[in-house]
Design a protein that fits this description.
By secondary structure, this protein is mainly α. The protein contains eight helices and no strands. The radius of gyration is 21 Å and the shape is extended.
C-alpha cells in the first residue's frame, strides 16, 4: 500500500492566467506602484520631457527607435523611489512583474539597460529637469493626500575574498 504525499504538490509550469492572477494577488497585497498609477498620469510630464530630451535627427530608419520619454521617466521614478543603482534598476525591472506593469513593458527585452538609464538621467539633470520633475510628482501626490516614502532594496552581492596564505 502506497502512502499519499502529505505535502502540497508544485504546480506544473505557468498557466494561461498566471500573469493576471499574479497581478491581482499583488493588487490585493497593496502594490504601491499601482496606487501611484491611479493618482498620477505621467503623460502630463510629456511636454517637459520631450523638450528636455531632444532627439537627434535620424539619418535612416535603420537601428532601434528611441525610448519613449514617459517610459524612461517611469524607470527613473522606480529607481529613485527604491534607491537603486543603474545596474540594479535594470535587474529589478526585469525581475519584478509589478515594476514592468507600472512602467508599461511586457517583455524583459523592452527594459532599458543600465547605460541607457544613466544616459537619460544625466540628460535630464544637465537640463535642470530631473529634480524639478520629481518635485512636481511629490507635490502632486501630496496635494492628493498621499505621502510618498522612498524605500531601499538592499543589494546583496557575493564576492570571493582572496585566501591568506601567510605562514611564518
Amino acid at each position: 500500500m502506497k502512502k499519499a504525499h502529505q505535502y502540497r504538490q508544485k504546480q506544473e509550469g505557468a498557466g494561461l492566467f498566471e500573469v493576471p492572477d499574479t497581478l491581482k494577488t499583488l493588487s490585493k497585497l497593496g502594490n504601491p506602484l499601482e496606487v501611484i498609477s491611479q493618482y498620477v498620469d505621467f503623460e502630463m510630464f510629456r511636454p517637459e520631457l520631450e523638450r528636455g530630451l531632444p532627439r537627434e535627427e535620424r539619418k535612416s530608419k535603420a537601428g532601434r527607435r528611441p525610448i519613449d520619454p514617459v517610459l524612461i521617466f517611469k524607470v527613473l521614478f522606480v529607481q529613485r523611489l527604491y534607491g537603486l543603482s543603474d545596474e540594479q534598476t535594470e535587474y529589478q525591472i526585469k525581475d519584478r512583474m509589478s515594476f514592468r506593469e507600472f512602467i508599461g513593458v511586457e517583455s524583459v527585452l523592452d527594459v532599458p539597460d543600465a547605460l541607457t538609464v544613466c544616459e537619460y538621467r544625466n540628460k535630464l539633470s544637465n537640463n535642470g529637469l530631473y529634480n524639478m520633475l520629481f518635485k512636481r510628482v511629490y507635490e502632486y501626490l501630496k496635494s492628493q493626500g498621499l505621502i510618498l516614502h522612498s524605500g531601499e532594496i538592499i543589494e546583496a552581492s557575493f564576492m570571493v575574498s582572496p585566501r591568506q596564505r601567510n605562514t611564518r
